[in-house]
Amino acid sequence: MAKLGMLLLILCHGLIRAGRGVEADTSFQYYQFSNSGNSISVLGDAHIFIDDLALELTNKAAGRATFDYPVRVISASPQTSISFETNFIFSIENEPSTPQAYGAGLTFSISSENKTVGDPGGYLGLVTANPSTSVSTTKYFALEFDTKQDTQFQDIDDNHIGVDINSLVSQQAKPAMSGTIPVTLASGTHIQAYVSYNSVAHVLDVSISPYTNGDYVKPTVSLLSVPIDLSTVFNEYMYIGFSAATGAGTVRHKIWSWTFKTTTLNSTGQPVPTAPDSEYLAPGPSPGGFEHPFGVSTGGRVQSSAILGLMFCVSLSLSVNLA
Ligand SMILES: *[C@@H]1O[C@H](CO)[C@@H](O)[C@H](O)[C@H]1NC(C)=O
Ligand SMILES: *[C@@H]1O[C@H](CO)[C@@H](O)[C@H](O)[C@H]1NC(C)=O
């Protein structure tokens, strides 16, 4: 018998737009996705799958979804650099009617452009097989959650996580594991990914954890811990988001929740002090009419008052099936 539990869901979206001469960190949380005012742009197959309150990236070929606003990932001041942390929950599942279908996988990407959806199959909805001039100059960092082995891109297997820089041939890749436990990416299970980049130590860490016994447990040791200097890849502002692609048949790649946060660090790796939220966050539209007064972790380094703030939160009480 299914167990019903009460879950308080807080849908919150905080965002800071920095004006001239202002540097601010970016932070937002999607604990679910809805169609109104979500600040997500979708291309190709991607859409909000409202039955699930999820961001569905594919239902036939390839899709891409990006956060509407470019995110500052390089500090204008040479004294500082910008770290980021992102967690998201995804699932990759076949339609029951097409159990023999296979997908290619999904990516979390930080790209210099937000207008192109890539091709299906091994291109993971991120890059096109025959890039136009504008697309061939695109710079990107991507984490691939790849469920099909493409020899063209020197994939290690059909169930791996790889770090890609301006190429789908991964710089480093490992079979999907949560600690010492193998994880099947395309099992339909919800999987949480934990990604952090330290811009002073120049290390990218990636772990995953499948939903097991009612929870996600972040492994103590990262699956990938890659020395990498992303400042050579990034423009000052980049677009963040997801892409995915199917192979043959219907495979649904879904993002269920997503949090993202940048932190500006000084040269010794300490966070640059941030101003209190209330100083620079203006209340924004409240789509559901429920203002939630708590401070979201929207840190910012404020050097002038030229800030446009936008923030809204919705809290919902839902009965959910936890079984
Ligand atoms: C691309 O980003 C701009 C903001 O820089 C935004 O106005 C536009 O809607 C985005 N387009 C797509 C397709 O994501
Ligand atoms: C870095 O930040 C720490 C903590 O705020 C501070 O003590 C230190 O002096 C800063 N270092 C530099 C080089 O700015």
UniProtKB/TrEMBL annotation:
GO terms for molecular function: carbohydrate binding. It comes from the Eukaryota. Residues 26-266 form the Legume lectin domain. Residues 1-21 form the signal peptide. InterPro entries: ConA-like_dom_sf, Legume_lectin_dom, Leguminous_Lectin. PANTHER family: CONCANAVALIN A-LIKE LECTIN FAMILY PROTEIN, LEGUME LECTIN DOMAIN-CONTAINING PROTEIN. This is Legume lectin domain-containing protein. It comes from Physcomitrium patens (Spreading-leaved earth moss).
